[in-house]
Amino acid sequence: MARLTLAEIYSHPVAQKFVNRAGLAHSISTAFHAFRLAKERGVHPDLAVKAAFLHDMGHYQWYNNGEWDYEQYRLHDIHAIKGAERAHKLLIRLGEDRFKAKQIALAVLFHTNSFIPDGQVNRTPLQQIVADADEADEEPGGNHHYRKINISKAWRKIHELDKKIEEELAQFPYENTGDEQRLKTPD
Ligand SMILES: [Fe+2]
């Protein structure tokens, strides 16, 4: 089965609507961080990049008089749950492998512990990459959601990520079951 590309994912109007709402620049740079971390840690780069790109699909703006309302966010936000469901539905619609779609959705779900009552989450390596990549791109006051990128540059970056993933997959075999790890470590 041919790999579903990031470009194919972002071509879908549902991806554009929700990724743009969360911040296209933030999604792309989180995906670049995820690619780097996946390479370093021997985790499947296709899953890491897709999960990072889609991780904030459930983003909702908790504003009160123009200020981000942390209390409302803490009490009511379920963006990781919504995002996981949206990402899964979109990926299945686009013909993604079901096993991969579930791994990606779970990595979206656990990218934050904000919705877990005691804050405890025991992440797999793939899930940890998405959390770390998101944190690496965070700015104070949630400003990372508003950073702008022009659309032609965004498309260039998306194609660049696809190319990096293809090159990495051509070079190293990855296991396709369980929490994907590189079968052979690079020399
Ligand atoms: Fe994020």
What percent of residues are in strands?
Answer: under 5%
Overall pLDDT score: 91
Ions, cofactors, ligands: which are bound?
fe (ii) ion
CATH topology: Hypothetical protein af1432
User: Number of folding domains?
Assistant: 1
Number of helices: 9
Q: What characteristic shape results from the CA principal axes?
A: globular
Q: State the CATH class.
A: Mainly Alpha
Radius of gyration: 16 Å
Low-confidence stretches: none
> Whole-Å distance between the termini?
29 Å
> What pattern of helices and strands is seen along the backbone?
HHHHEEHHHHH
Q: How many strand elements?
A: 2
Structural class: mainly alpha
Biggest beta sheet attributes: 2 strands, antiparallel
Per CATH, which architecture? Orthogonal Bundle
Q: What is the share of helical residues?
A: 55-70%
Task: For the largest sheet, list the strands in their spatial order.
Answer: 1-2
